[in-house]
């Protein structure tokens, strides 16, 4: 009963209090629902703090690129071509450079990370422990992979673990997420990494 209650608290986060339900034939919707469920588990069940730095940096790059585009638009309106040629060329070149930077950023920095959370030290003395989560689900495939990385900020060690299972394990026939089962899987992955940390 306790596990049922914990699962209900985690998964009934919609405004109307209903469990998560998706079109089980829509792989994107299923993956997004599972990613959101993982986010709720890490932030609500384990009470970790979400770090939005990766998303904020991507938005910063996009914002600067948009500012260059808007600058080119306004300047060309105020001083029509060809007088605006130099500014237009500079803005266009800057925009495409930033798009290249954004591509490199999402490929090599953000990668498949959909969640980064910090585990605070209750005493507030030791540095935060960092958890990074990646997920993958190929098109037309029912196999969902969740990877969890634990980074110990004290000694710089890094531990990683993952599981790959069919989404049919966590959704019923109507497409409703079975919270208790998914919570159990994610908790097992999380607790395994914590156990490894204690051994080391």
Provide the descriptors you would attach to this structure in a database record.
200 residues; alpha+beta; 5 helices; 51% helix; extended
What does this 3D model show about the protein?
The chain has 200 residues and is of the alpha+beta class. It contains 5 helices and 5 strands. The chain has helices at 2-11, 27-45, 53-78, 85-110, 179-199, and strands spanning 49-50, 113-119, 129-136, 143-151, 158-166. It has a 5-stranded antiparallel sheet with strand order 1-2-3-4-5, covered by helices on one side. Helix 3 (53-78) runs antiparallel to helix 4. The longest helix has 26 residues, at 53-78. The mean pLDDT is 87.
Portion in beta strands: 15-25%
Counting H and I runs of at least 4 residues, what is the number of helices? 5
**Which strands sit side by side, in order, in the main sheet?**
1-2-3-4-5
Radius of gyration using CA atoms only: 22 Å
Tell me the number of strands: 5
DSSP helix fraction: 40-55%
């Amino acid at each position: 009963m306790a596990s049922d209650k914990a699962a209900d608290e985690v998964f009934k986060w919609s405004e109307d209090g209903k469990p998560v339900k998706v079109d089980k034939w829509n792989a994107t919707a299923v993956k997004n629902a599972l990613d959101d469920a993982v986010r709720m588990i890490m932030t609500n069940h384990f009470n970790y703090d979400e770090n939005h730095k990766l998303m904020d940096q991507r938005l910063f790059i996009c914002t600067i690129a948009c500012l260059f585009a808007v600058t080119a638009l306004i300047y060309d309106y105020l001083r029509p071509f060809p007088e605006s040629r130099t500014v237009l060329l500079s803005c266009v070149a800057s925009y495409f450079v930033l798009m290249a930077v954004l591509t490199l950023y999402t490929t090599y920095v953000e990668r498949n990370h959909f969640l980064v959370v910090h585990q605070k030290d209750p005493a507030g003395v030791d540095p935060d422990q960092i958890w990074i989560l990646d997920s993958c689900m190929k098109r037309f495939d029912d196999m969902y992979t969740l990877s969890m990385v634990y980074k110990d900020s004290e000694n710089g060690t890094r531990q990683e673990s993952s599981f790959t299972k069919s989404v049919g394990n966590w959704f019923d026939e109507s497409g409703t997420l079975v919270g208790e089962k998914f919570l159990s899987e994610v908790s097992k992955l999380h607790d395994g990494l914590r156990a490894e940390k204690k051994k080391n």
